[in-house]
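Record 1 of the preview.
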Amino acid sequence: MEKENSRTLPGTPEHKKELRRRAMRLPLHPGVYIMHNARGEIIYIGKAKALKNRVSQYFGSEKNHPEKVRRMVSQVDWFEYILTDSEFEALILESSLIKQHQPKYNILLKDDKGYSYIRISGGPWPKITEVKQIADDGAEYIGPYLSAWSIRQTIDEARKIFGLPSCNRKFPQDFGKGRPCLNYFIKQCCAPCRGKTSEAEYNDAVQQALEFIRGGSSQSVKVLTEKMNEAAENLDFELAARLRDRITAINKLRDRQKVVAGKVPEQDVIALAQGSRGSCFEVFRYLDSRLCDRETFLVSDCGEADSARTQFIMQYYAMRDRIPPLVVLDEAPADRELLARFLTEKRGGSVKLFVPQRGTQRQLVEMCRTNAAEQLAQSIGATGREMSALDELGRLLGLETPPEYIESYDISNTAGSENVAGMVVFQNGRPLKSAYRKFKIKTVVGQDDYGSMREVIHRRFEEYRAHEGEPEGFGRLPDLILLDGGAGHVAAVRPVLEAMGIDVPLFGMVKDDSHRTRAVTGDGGEISITSTRQAFTLISTIQDEVHRFAIGYHKQRRSKAAVSGTLTRIPGIGQTRARALMKHFRTITAIKEAGLEELKQAPGMTEPAARAVYEYFASEEHSD
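->
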């Protein structure tokens, strides 16, 4: 192990230069690097194929560093490194050291999986529930099971199939004490609370549910079929029909699982959803072509997605005994081949990492990613649909993280007159109307949309400099700027942002001949969005909203100009008095209908001015 120390203060330019000089002396050799803060605490552990190249990148330009990396680098006091014989050995050592030291800037997974049990309460009217511990309460317990999610799903399925209650009512004490709940009316509960279900019928349903839980759907169908045939032979057609319905429900459930799982008997599906305030990994585990477990991991900041996937997969399977032969991913991780080798050696058999582009497996990935987005959305108070759209948009535009705070701009005028702009804001995929802003174009004469857009962007970020750091309004820097226009608008505005030192992703929204959104455009050409449903819907909504807002402001200005022009034709009425009259009377009609005394009492009016207005509209009526 080699140690590289420093004597300058962490976070200063001198300190960073010194660390870079030391990093440039590292060998071009595989190994693990360990970052320490001034207190000697390990804050980050990474691995590299060539230590010199990887470590020196941290202390070079910050332009391409994610925020997480910038924060970490600002706290590095010194680093050390360990040479390994290969990059694969470095990957294994990195995983072991992360697990041992739990550095704050590495992805850290908390393995909160405990054992779960199925509890069957004692007494004549037993209930089936999921619990974490066995108690000495006279109840029967089945287990332990590793997957609490799977047990909850199984119990829920059993209740619905066999019509068992999920409420907290106690029987027979609560017979007739209230109306049955919705489950009874949708045929998912026999509603013993009505007092019309016999104890024998209820206990028989409980036993059938337990057989379903213990033996699985196939065994349960076999047993129920035998009982149904027996009931039919005994002419107990009511019982036979009830058993038939339960068999049908089980088969529907099994068919639905087959549609979801496809033909792969054992696999895991892993997807990542990212937001500006956190990320979420979701894992779906399939066994015997059936979803058998689901796990969710919320992390505060995972940094670069491809590296984050590698860290997650290493840590996740280090905590699990079962490794499937197929791991399906939403995107390719860094070190894909090394990961496959690690998993293959741990499993003792071949493991394939697969990123599907189409078909059933891609549908499973999208379902997994949607669930990850939903979990992340719940943690920050948004909806899963909104987070999925932002995640999809971020990936489409090549952004490091999904754009939580989006600003969009549009210009509106009539042949260059009453030239205005509108700015709308979308936060977490929703309009933030309190942040909308209107601009009256001041420096551009005539119809020049490019010049008008340059003025608006310059004024907006001049306000940012004046209010930088404020959590709302112009003091907040957007995660993405969308212009209502094509490549020409982007090319016109880009130099303004660069001259002002504003580093925000900039794209234009392009419409087709029918005035519908069809693509976004940046410096690298157009990006089609028609195949990405959620991102397409979000961008279309933003473009329609900014267009509506800008046109609305333009119509308002044009209407005021027309009204003002009418009043200023009256002798003695200038722009100031015209505005005062409109503010006081609200409409031209109200001014026309006002008496001479009312006009004289209006703000800013004199008797001659009031008489001029009165006589003007009186003569207008007479001429009509």
